[in-house]
Amino acid sequence: MHLSFQLDFITRDRLPLLCCLVAFILTFFVTRTIVRYIRATADSDAPRKWWQPRNIGHGGVHIHHVVFGVILVMVSGVTMVTLAVSGGVPEFTVAATFFGIGAALVLDEFALILHLQDVYWAEDGRTSVDAVFAAVAVAGLLVLGFNPLSFFDVGMWQDDHSLLARTTVILGAVFTLLLAVVVLLKGKVWTGLVGMFITPLLLVGAARLSRPHAPWARWRYTTRPRKMHRALVRERSLRRPVVQAKLWLQHAVAGEPHFPNDSEVDQQLDREIHAAAAPPPDQPATVPASASTV
């Protein structure tokens, strides 16, 4: 029976990406479950059965699962590059699935790579969870059919070879990228990330107040206390439910599901929300004139 992939957003060209995303998510949750099991049974004196998960080591060296992730990413990446010219959808789908597995193993220990020390269960280890969420968000948008720099029509570049059409596309791309830079300078990483796919978000993010600790606030708000105060108050009120949800989700992923109490949320808000320090006297406190003045 012939299977058609023309179901909603699942087309043949998106099948490898969809399988990559599914493999990524499943591998991440399975890996977290296994690691939690190993940690929970680490002090047990009961003999391990052959099927029970355990740490892998050689010569007294603990081999982290990021090692297997790097190997899988490299092998599957080379495979996809090899198939780039003459490969079919089935071959790409298999390679993309293994790439998703490897990427999940790598990003699950992203904090270890970032800090160059084992902080898997420490506060800094939450960086890995944030990296996984960002990867899932980007892959999910791609699967749904969103394209980066969607403010302009890429089809225009392919269908119309006139100078006017090419110039319009290039200017649209540059404008979108400049908006993304402004949004990132204002400390709105998620708005900038998703806004690369849904451009109106970039317009909103660029027009709104900067986060108080971001470079934009450091350049423009340190000499304007009322605006800095507005940014601090707004940040704390808007971030509170976000921080509550984030902490709950991180606890759940880490295997300790419970709703964070007010003191935990306040501590996280205190860590995240602070006024930016003023730039040094020899550094101008303004941004280029071409940037937004909002």
UniProtKB/TrEMBL annotation:
<keyword id="KW-0812">Transmembrane</keyword>
<feature type="compositionally biased region" description="Low complexity">
    <location>
        <begin position="284"/>
        <end position="294"/>
    </location>
</feature>
<feature type="transmembrane region" description="Helical">
    <location>
        <begin position="15"/>
        <end position="35"/>
    </location>
</feature>
<feature type="transmembrane region" description="Helical">
    <location>
        <begin position="92"/>
        <end position="116"/>
    </location>
</feature>
<keyword id="KW-0472">Membrane</keyword>
<feature type="transmembrane region" description="Helical">
    <location>
        <begin position="163"/>
        <end position="184"/>
    </location>
</feature>
<protein>
    <recommendedName>
        <fullName>Integral membrane protein</fullName>
    </recommendedName>
</protein>
<feature type="region of interest" description="Disordered">
    <location>
        <begin position="258"/>
        <end position="294"/>
    </location>
</feature>
<feature type="transmembrane region" description="Helical">
    <location>
        <begin position="131"/>
        <end position="151"/>
    </location>
</feature>
<feature type="transmembrane region" description="Helical">
    <location>
        <begin position="63"/>
        <end position="85"/>
    </location>
</feature>
<feature type="transmembrane region" description="Helical">
    <location>
        <begin position="190"/>
        <end position="210"/>
    </location>
</feature>
<keyword id="KW-1133">Transmembrane helix</keyword>
